[in-house]
């Protein structure tokens, strides 16, 4: 039974939810993703997750809970979203090469319990990446639709030395924290966890 609407075009988010037993109706939304002047990265991702969830709720006819989410890479307080083109992607990877950065993923869920939200920070350490690797990586097609221009779940795994935090959050949805929000909204997870935690 479908118990959740996913306000997202991201196949990763749909697959991550399926992995904990949550099938969704998909309702992509189109919101303005321009940061506000002086907006802190954390405030920005939280606002976008909320706006996606609310835009989804406004579009659907049913009263299903609606989940919106946003992921950004942050380096020295600068928000790195999706690359505009190859040059931009290369510049992002040069900036991340040989250092640690943070990945922020916010999740918001509308429902009977009101609008619930959370934001998860994961620290990702990358080894140094050569110019040749940067150019070759673009050709894989992977960077184009990913925050920071890389995919930890893909070829970029060979660049990532260590993470501290949530792997699933880097891929697009922190599963532990998301499960807690969904249970508070009464959404059933895999069958053994129907009423887990917050019943
Ligand atoms: C850092 C990183 C990001 N990503 C993805 C997660 C997000 O899908 C994407 C960041 O863009 P988002 O704007 O968060 O999401 P989206 O445009 O894919 O989907 P929607 O707005 O419709 O919900 O980057 C990875 O898949 N792997 C990674 O290692």
Q: Span from first to last CA?
A: 19 Å
| Proportion of residues in β-strands | 15-25%
Q: Return residue spans where pLDDT drops below 50 for at least 5 consecutive residues.
A: none
List the helices and strands in order.
Answer: EHEHEEHEEHEHH
Please give the share of residues in helix. Answer: 25-40%
Q: Count the E strands.
A: 7
CATH topology: Maf protein
Overall geometry comes to globular
Look at the helices and sheets and give the structural class: alpha/beta
Bound small-molecule species:
thymidine-5'-triphosphate
CATH classification, class level? Alpha Beta
| Name of the CATH architecture | Alpha-Beta Complex
Question: How many distinct folded domains?
Answer: 1
Q: Main beta sheet, described? A: 7 strands, mixed
The overall average pLDDT, rounded, is 95
Query: How large is the radius of gyration?
Result: 17 Å
The number of helices is 6
GO biological process, one term: nucleotide metabolic process
InterPro entries: ITPase-like_fam (IPR029001), Maf-like (IPR003697)
EC number: 3.6.1.9
GO molecular function: dTTP diphosphatase activity; UTP diphosphatase activity
């Amino acid at each position: 039974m479908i118990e959740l609407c996913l306000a997202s075009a991201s196949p990763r988010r749909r697959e991550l939810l399926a992995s904990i037993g949550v099938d969704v109706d998909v309702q992509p939304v189109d919101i303005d993703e321009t940061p506000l002047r002086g907006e802190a990265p954390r405030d920005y991702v939280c606002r976008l997750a909320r706006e996606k969830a609310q835009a989804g709720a406004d579009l659907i006819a049913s009263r299903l809970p609606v989940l919106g989410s946003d992921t950004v890479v942050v380096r020295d307080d600068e928000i790195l979203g999706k690359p505009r083109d190859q040059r931009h992607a290369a510049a992002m990877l040069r900036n991340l090469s040989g250092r640690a950065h943070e990945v922020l993923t916010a999740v918001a869920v509308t429902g009977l319990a009101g609008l619930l939200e959370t934001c998860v920070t994961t620290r990702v350490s990358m080894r140094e990446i050569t110019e040749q690797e940067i150019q070759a990586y673009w050709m894989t097609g992977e960077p184009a639709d990913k925050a920071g221009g890389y995919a930890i779940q893909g070829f970029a795994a060979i660049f990532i030395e260590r993470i501290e935090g949530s792997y699933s959050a880097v891929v697009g949805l922190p599963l532990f924290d998301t499960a807690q929000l969904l249970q508070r909204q009464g959404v059933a997870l895999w069958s053994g966890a129907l009423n887990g935690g917050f019943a």
